[in-house]
Design goal:
Length: 357
């Protein structure tokens, strides 16, 4: 009797990637604004502004090229209340495999003066695993800078570019732009641009499509004082999907599937002297029915291999091999899936991993 077991794999595409860390990738760099970035003109502060801050401008633009994905973030914020002074604690997180971020400038505008923050301050680099308590290791670096003497009434301006380049996806790029449902008053621009030959497939929500400004090699969405969205309480997640743009070099979900299928086939292939073969033989000797064997294999992977997510060395989207996962007795959803596939294959049970969006 042929038995097909479907192994469901939750693939979290958090765009984290890592290889060995170079010295240059551990430093925040200084440099000019990229030629594809286009900061918006600042919106005038109203005579009687309300709230802790006024967003004179916020620009988020993603650029696609042969080098991968670059993300420009720039903003100029008027600080109206003391609760907004925490914006002076600037934090940048990045994965060193994609290259260190480039800070273009950080300025404080006070009356008629322009104060260059980076003249007397610098970023402190931290290596911290923010989700270590949930068994996640991704190698993320964090740079922090505390703006000195920031005051109510000041305007804080920050311009920087960060990078994403996942070794599993290779030249393929994908991502999302979203305008939050509850923005502070002010001006917001989201943009997507690309070099020739790198135009992605694009899908937008209807509310964002209405604000689209198309140009050759780019599209932009600008909002002045965007409305606060009232989202339905306890509704399915699809009802919360507002003011969003998705982009991808993959034509469709089958194309994504075909990209990942060979990775799992390779990871599930066992060495001739693999200890996993021995475990499969023990299961086969203890159980006769395929369903009982599959249940025993699943129990082995669930109980004898502890969960630890490891995004180091390109492991964010690439599964560790079944032999490696069994040898170290820990793995994430990808590695444990590859191990289960290998066990089921040894037991003569057809199985396939499923990517879950």
């Amino acid at each position: 009797m042929e038995t097909v077991i479907r192994v469901y794999l939750l693939l979290v595409t958090s765009l984290l990637c890592s290889t060995s860390v170079g010295a240059q990738a551990e430093k925040v760099r200084r440099g000019p604004l990229p030629n594809w970035a286009s900061p918006s003109p600042s919106l005038a502060v109203p005579e009687a502004p309300s709230g802790p801050l006024f967003m004179r401008r916020q620009d988020l633009e993603i650029h696609l090229s042969e080098q991968g994905q670059a993300q420009y973030l720039g903003y100029r914020i008027k600080i109206l209340q003391s609760t907004a002074l925490q914006l002076g604690n600037i934090s940048i997180a990045w994965n060193p495999a994609a290259g260190a971020p480039i800070v273009h400038d950080i300025n404080v505008y006070r009356d008629s003066k322009v104060i260059d923050v980076l003249q007397n301050s610098s970023f402190e680099i931290l290596r911290r695993e923010e989700q270590l308590e949930t068994a996640r290791l991704d190698g993320t670096l964090t740079a922090i800078l505390r703006v000195l003497d920031l005051r109510v009434g000041d305007e804080l301006e920050v311009n920087l570019t960060a990078f994403t380049n996942d070794p599993t996806l290779g030249p393929k790029q994908a991502g999302i732009l979203v305008l939050t449902p509850t923005p502070s008053p002010g001006r917001y621009r989201m943009g997507l641009s690309w070099d020739e030959g790198h135009k992605p497939n694009i899908k937008t929500t209807a509310d964002l499509a209405a604000a689209m400004i198309k140009q050759e090699g780019s599209m932009n969405f600008r909002f002045d004082n965007p409305a606060v969205l009232s989202l339905p309480k306890d509704a399915p997640v699809r009802y919360y999907w507002k003011r969003a743009l998705e982009f991808s070099d993959f034509e469709d979900w089958p194309a994504l599937s075909m990209h990942f299928a060979p990775l799992y086939a390779k990871a599930a292939k066992l060495a001739p002297n693999s200890a996993v073969k021995t475990e499969a033989a023990l299961i086969a000797g203890s159980y006769r029915l395929p369903l009982d064997r599959a249940s025993a294999a699943l129990k082995l992977v669930q109980q004898d291999v502890r969960y630890i997510y490891v995004g180091l060395n390109g492991g964010n989207l690439t599964p560790a091999s079944a032999d490696e996962t069994w040898q170290r007795r820990y793995g994430d959803c990808k590695g444990k899936t590859a191990l289960l596939l290998a066990l089921l294959s040894e037991l003569g049970i057809d199985a396939e991993p499923v990517l879950v969006n």
